[in-house]
Structure formats: C-alpha cells, structure tokens
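Q: what sequence does this backbone want?
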C-alpha cells in the first residue's frame, strides 16, 4: 500500500486534473491572490456596519469559516458565516454582506445576495466570474476576482486572502499582507516536508492517510479551530469519497464520549490542536483522550503544527490535512478531483 504513494506514475493515473499539484501550490496561489486588485465599485463608509455576514456554500463557505476563526477577535462587530439562501432577520441596511462563490453560479449564494440587496445591505462579492460577477456589475457592487484553481475547494487560500483584502478595503481590519506573507512562507516549509517526493517512511501525511483507509475518521478540536476540522471532514468527502465527522471540545465530553465504548464501526479518532491551549483545555483534552482510548481501545492520531501567526496556525493544519485527503484518494484508487454526485445534486 505505501508504495502506491511513492509511485509517481500510479499517482498520475488517478490524478487526472492534478489535484495534488494544486495542494502543493497552495501557498503560491495565495501569493498570487495578494497581488490582485481590491474590489471595485461603490463602497459605503465603515461606520454604517453593525454586523458582517460571510455567505457561501461548500469550499467557499470553508473560506468564510477560516476568515472568521482568524479575525473574529480583531473585529468590533459580530461576524458570522451563513450557509442558507434564507437570511437571518438582522440582515439589514447596516449589514456588510460578503458573497463568496468560487464559480459565481452557486444558486443559494445568488439567492441570498439578491435578498440582501432587497434589504439594502452593503454588498461585496468574491469569485472567478459567472452570474455573481455579472450581477455585481449590473448593480455596481464591488467584485474581487479570485485566481483560478482545478476545483473550488482547491482555491481556499485565494478566497481567504480575497475576503481579508475586501475587509481591509472597507477599513474593518488592518492590512493583512504581512501576516499572509509570513503564513505563506510557513506553508511552503510544511509543503516541502510532506509533498509527493518525500517517501512514505519519512512522510507523516502519507502515513496518516494510510491509517485512515477503511475507517471512519472522527475529528476533535476546540472551537477556535473548528474551521480546520470542518474543512478536513469536507475534504475527506470530496477528495477521498468517504464519510467523516467532527466534534468540538469540551462539549463532546458531555455526550459523545459515551458512544466510544466498543464501537461497532472501525473509527479513527484524530485530534487537531494548536499551541495556545490553556491549562484547563490541556487537562480536559487529556481526560477526553484517555477516556475514549480506554472505552474503544483505539489509539488517536494528532495533528499539531507550530506557526508564528494566527493565520498560519489555521492554514498549516489545513494544508497538512489536504495532503492527507488526496493521498487517501490515491490509496483507494480514485480520482480526488471528480465530484459526479455534487454535479447531479446541482442539476436538481
């Protein structure tokens, strides 16, 4: 099994649209996005905003999740990620509504965009084009183009950068370019350690992928890293074509921990951690990990990477786990890029 991941010809047979190459170029795509122009169009004054809504679906919503986890403590007004065409009642004229759609064709995002317009919200749009760009131009709404990728989920870095640039252009946050540059350098370092040329014996991402084959991954983390856990669950679905779930600590210790006693399914617990845990969090995590290990007799895996910035602290494990999801697809003998059932759903 490991030899498959070290066989470049075998990888090429499955990776027809070079999803692995897109993962390896994650930081490069981010750097390109930084150089792209800020949104054009009419922009209102910062003082009118009482809340911020990041609207998106799928990979575009994942970008919103990461921006929220990255910047939530730097923004003085409430900000949320929304995944539904039906808008909350509080979305009004004092809302900054950011529509994120890589393709520009996502029907839920377009419906929410139109509804926010009716309510008089301040709008900005992010994507590669499509109906969203056309509608933005018709309404003179600022539109920020995103650098293209093999699939929407492969453009996560670009959409995170684009959203932060949009927020900066409105004066909501300080210039994020320095932090983005530092994160890009760290991403390059991590990528070199787990890229395809690094053999299985020296590549922890390949080894983690191998350990997950034939099992149901269950990902645990704290709230501030929820975007990373959710992203990995989604990448396992789209790239690896497998079901996974994630849970948040400490809540999981008050309910889900009970389900770990002699599970009937072959589960694979994974802890995603950072280096800013409090003493309480470390104690609680240790207790939870010990309890599920005793109950299930399954040894959990852990993903924990050091970073110099908050953005890096989120994107380093995202990149690491993106590699894992693609390697797992190769181990299963499938193409990580193609998503025929998503296409069928969208036709409905």
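A:
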């Amino acid at each position: 099994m490991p030899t498959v991941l070290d066989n470049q010809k075998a990888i090429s047979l499955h990776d027809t649209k070079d999803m692995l190459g897109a993962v390896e170029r994650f930081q490069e795509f981010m750097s390109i996005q930084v150089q792209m122009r800020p949104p054009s169009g009419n922009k209102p004054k910062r003082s009118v905003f009482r809340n911020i809504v990041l609207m998106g679906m799928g990979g575009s919503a994942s970008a919103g999740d990461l921006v929220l986890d990255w910047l939530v403590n730097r923004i003085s007004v409430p900000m949320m990620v929304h995944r539904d065409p039906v808008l909350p009642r509080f979305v009004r004229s004092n809302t900054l509504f950011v529509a994120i759609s890589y393709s520009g064709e996502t029907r839920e995002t377009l419906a929410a965009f139109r509804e926010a317009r009716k309510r008089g919200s301040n709008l900005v749009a992010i994507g590669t084009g499509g109906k969203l760009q056309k509608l933005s131009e018709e309404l003179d709404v600022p539109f920020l183009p995103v650098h293209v990728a093999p699939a929407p989920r492969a453009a996560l870095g670009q959409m995170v950068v684009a959203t932060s640039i949009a927020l900066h252009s409105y004066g909501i946050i300080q210039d994020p370019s320095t932090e983005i540059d530092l994160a890009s350098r760290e991403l390059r370092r991590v990528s070199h350690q787990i890229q395809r040329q690094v053999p299985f014996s020296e590549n922890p991402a390949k080894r983690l992928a191998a350990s997950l084959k034939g099992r149901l991954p269950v990902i645990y983390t704290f709230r501030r890293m929820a975007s990373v856990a959710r992203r990995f669950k989604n990448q396992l679905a789209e790239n690896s074509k497998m079901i996974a779930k994630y849970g948040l600590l400490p809540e999981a210790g008050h309910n889900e921990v009970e389900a770990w006693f002699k599970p009937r399914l072959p589960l694979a617990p994974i802890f995603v951690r950072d280096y800013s845990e409090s003493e309480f969090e470390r104690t609680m995590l240790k207790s939870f990990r010990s309890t599920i290990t005793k109950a299930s007799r399954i040894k959990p895996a852990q993903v924990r990477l050091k970073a110099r910035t908050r953005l890096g602290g989120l994107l380093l494990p995202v990149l690491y786990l993106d590699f894992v999801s693609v390697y797992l697809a190769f181990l299963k003998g499938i193409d990580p890029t193609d998503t025929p059932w998503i296409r069928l759903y969208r036709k409905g």
